[in-house]
Amino acid sequence: MKELAKILRSDLKEVLLAVTLGVLAVLSSIGLFATSAYLIAKAALRPPAYTLTLAIVGVRFFGLSRAVFRYLERYFSHKTTFNFLAQIRIFFYEKIEPKAPAILQKVRTTDLLARMVADIESLQNFFLRVVYPYLVMFIVFLLIASFLKSFSFWFSLLLFMGFITGSVLIPVIFGKKSLELGKKLRTQRAALSNCLGELIAGYIDLKTTNSLTDKVLKVEKLSQKLLVFRQKAALLNALSESGFLLLSHVTGFLALILAVYLSSEGKLAGVLMALVVLTVQTSFEALFPAASARQYWEENKESAQRVFSLINEPPPVIEGVGKSTLPLSHSLEFKEVSLIYPGNSKPSLERVSFSLAQGQKIAVVGPSGSGKSSIIKLLLRFYDYEGEILLGGEDLKGFAPEAVRTLFGVVSQESFIFNTTLEENLRVAKPGASREELLEVLQKVNLTHLALSLEVGERGERLSGGERQRLLLARLLLKDAPIWLLDEPTTGLDALTEKEVLENLWDVALGKTVLYITHRLVGLEKMDEILVMEQGKIVEKGNYAEIFKRRI
């Protein structure tokens, strides 16, 4: 919660303005009731009309100011809240982005999305429902208590007892149950979010295996349980608010008894009795928003822990550190490189050594889990490693990761196609590309039959398998990086389409340095060298003819 307070302090002027307007709005409301009560009591004595002028003006003033200050208070308190939310979202993304994709090994995608959306959204209540109400309540109490003390110390004491009961005792009574319900709500919401994510992502598989109905029933069951918890939380909140309302009436009644006693003793003018009683009772308007403050506090505390537990995770590689000027030579060399992913005990790469000269093409072949893709992740500086990787003869760790990535064009089995137009998907690689450049790369990859305005659908579902791979290849060409990292670029294609895509690929790869990851010895005739990997180690090296001869 310290981190939230720190972010909130960056908008201190807006916070103070919102609190000031909140205090003025409550004071205007109290003033309206108090002056109205005084005016009625005074008028009942039938004094000369001019003696009522000040009270009449006061009623008009407080009536207008109450509306104005309440509007301004709502405007600035919500503006502050939205600014606060925007800062948290930006802060969260800036901290999480350097940790991707490593962070996805620790949390599920749906869980990460829930933290980014639902948990951060719930943090809007930190200021609006927790900090703000208590600040307004405290200031109003001090001002009204000082005002009531001018009539009698006992009125101030009565107000103090009422505020202590409302701000401490009632929240304690309802707090434990509220905390339990809050935890159940968050757990149930996360479970529903995960289940919905699985339903959407696996819709086709669920339908083809006749499991869709079971999954939908599970979602409905989770939704129903969530609804029950929300109803219980709403009931508890209603009871809490009723407790505050009862407290205000009881305190007002006690203030009336005290006023009658003091008036009978000649210590309080009878015409002021209604003013004092209504001042005490309407002061609880400042306390009502605090009715649910404890519930929101616990919810915010839990959400903040979920959000900041990810933010405070140490990044696998420190971004922004190192040289941004890259060497002219784009040769690569691995020297005794080892990698153990966080949370794993078994190395994914173990003492791997090889070199890739500028303009050379090397294929890395091996079964799934042999460590092939880990080589690309290290080159892109997604993870730290033991050993040494040289870029142009210089240590890769000496360069800023974001600068290193400008050298690489990547096509992998996980490359993402966005649900937008073909043109926008191409501009991912080069945002400032001209229309002529886009048409040129489409011609190179044989996609001229597709219009740039074509909506490609979710993950490119409106394209064939071959068209999707050619689109990724077009992005690769558009970036025009000197080093190509190709990780299973023909996954899921039939043999004929795979052959066409590979032929297309090698035709446009002239002059490029290429590291090609695959699990089969197919289409590797043009490779300068082939590395065979098993269990994180290079077990065989040679050109295509040598490797093929050994396998016969």
UniProtKB/TrEMBL annotation:
Coiled coil: none annotated. Residues 16-299 form the ABC transmembrane type-1 domain. GO terms for cellular component: plasma membrane. Keywords: ATP-binding, Membrane, Nucleotide-binding, Transmembrane, Transmembrane helix. GO terms for molecular function: ABC-type oligopeptide transporter activity; ATP binding; ATP hydrolysis activity. Pfam families: ABC_tran. Residues 332-552 form the ABC transporter domain. Signal peptide: none annotated. InterPro entries: AAA+_ATPase (IPR003593), ABC1_TM_dom (IPR011527), ABC1_TM_sf (IPR036640), ABC_CydC/D (IPR014223), ABC_transporter-like_ATP-bd (IPR003439), ABC_transporter-like_CS (IPR017871), P-loop_NTPase (IPR027417), Type_1_exporter (IPR039421). It comes from the Bacteria. GO terms for biological process: cell redox homeostasis; glutathione transmembrane transport. The chain crosses the membrane at residues 15-41, 47-69, 126-147, 153-174, 244-262. It is a multi-pass membrane protein. PANTHER family: ATP-BINDING CASSETTE SUB-FAMILY B MEMBER 10, MITOCHONDRIAL, ATP-DEPENDENT PERMEASE MDL1, MITOCHONDRIAL. NCBIfam families: CydC. This is Thiol reductant ABC exporter subunit CydC. It comes from Carboxydothermus pertinax.
